[in-house]
Amino acid sequence: MERVIDDGSSRQRDYKYHGNDNEAQRGRRREGMVELRKQKRATSAFKRRDIHVDEDMDAELDTPSDIPALIACMREGELSAKHTAVMHCRALLSQSADPPIDAVVRGGAVPILVEMLYSTDEDIQTEAAWTLSSITAGTSEQTAEVVRNGAIPTFLNCMKSESQIIKERALLALGNIAGDGPALRDVLLGLGGIPCVVQVLNSEFSLSLLRRATWTLSNMCRFSNPPPATEHVEMVLPILTRLILESQDIEILSDTLWGLSYLASGPVERVQRIIDSNVCRNLIRFLKPDNDFKITEPALRIFGHILSGSNLHADYALNLGVTPLLRALLGSPKSSVVQDACWALSNIAAGPPHHIQCLIDTSVLPSIVQLLHTNHSSPAGNEAAWVVANLLSGGQQEQVVYAAHMGTIKSLIKPLSTMAYQDAEPFLKGVERGLQICMQSGMNLVDDMEDFPDVVERFLNAREEHVARRAQSILDTFFTSDEI
Q1: Those residues with Cβ within 8 angstroms of residue 453's Cβ, 6 or more apart along the chain or in another chain
Q2: Is the pLDDT of residue 283 over 60?
Q3: Considering only CA atoms, which of 428, 416, 409, 417 is closest in space to residue 468?
Q4: pLDDT, mean of residues 22-49
Q5: What is the pLDDT, as a whole number, of residue 97?
Q6: Which of 200, 277, 279, 338 is the Cys-Cys partner for 380 at CB 3.0 to 4.6 Å?
Q7: DSSP state of 87
Q8: What's the count of helices (H) and strands (E) in the chain, helices before strands?
Q9: d(Cα 361, Cα 369) in Å, to the nearest integer?
Q10: Count of CB atoms within 10 A of residue 482's CB?
Q11: Nearest C-alpha neighbor of 226 from the set 192, 270, 172
Q12: How many CA atoms lie within 13 A of 226 on its CB side?
């Protein structure tokens, strides 16, 4: 088994910036980016709800005003009436627009539905599980109400059912509970969620059921504040690795890779555990530009986190050949792929000189400069600017001179012209060091940067004194007063 041992060398923890207290700086940048991306995916992927319309169902009951009567019938009616009532309740919550989840929860339906999961009538069990899964797709309070009524052990027990549809509905509910946040995720993990889902993955052959189980397992890996406990990571890594090696289904691969990416976003020790699992050698193929975006994006995120670890973690990824694949992904038509590729490249640029040399040797810089010229104000452009800033701040003299010849220093003019004052320090620092090295090497860039003094001068008004001082230093050192 391969192992990367951290020798204690200080690779700046994730995002960028060769400045003072760089470990803390990179840590803050990383927390901000990870949280931003989780928020973006939260609306579409953290929770799911099955949408289904029964065209032959009696429409007279399918209005929110009938919910109290439906709940009363579910509580006190005969078996057939209970089945009809829960079926209508499920249909109301399965509608695509604004399902009345709150009315069902406030009406007291949740404990009744949980009790129905124990019914000997399979149809009632199915409808109850489906209805509860829709409730867990609602707000955090609605999901918590389901958990408070003891639904998790009941859902886990449903994994023993011979009915595929009951298992699928229960898995959907469990995935929604795990995806609600770290608190409910940990409740589920503590009650044995992982072994139950793994048992389904090891024993079932239905593609739809395997897809649902994989998504649920992926949600159990979510969230890094706090991350899942180590013992749960040890339980889940082998099954994720096996799925990557054996599955050819895009949906299963996508959710498996997202699960790994969630684990990799946690403490650096989790990155080491992923490396130790030997799965990374099988992940590199997913970075090829002709892959489906559903698998490219999470694979790219995994390598971005690996590159944000120790120097030896980054060495491991670079030795797998990640750099030319990242360069190719800069030409992707999908903006989020370009953004994450730039993010990963910026982590390489934040490393020691032999990491920076990888960027130079694989001709990454022309693509970065072109991106900054054509799309500097986009999220991808912001990440591209970090590639340049890191390289200028940490590269050796010959590397910085080469980068300047490629147009990297001038490429920061447009980003700096619109950049917020509080964000500018690392970019101004990179520019200052780049100009200083070029001047010492006899390379005159200033005469070809007539717009640059005006761009830098705006930062003299910054409330952040360190930013204003940096701007003043650049103007005093490289530009005469009559040029501004």
Answers
A1: 475, 479, 483, 484
A2: yes
A3: 428
A4: 43
A5: 77
A6: 338
A7: H
A8: 29, 0
A9: 16
A10: 5
A11: 270
A12: 8
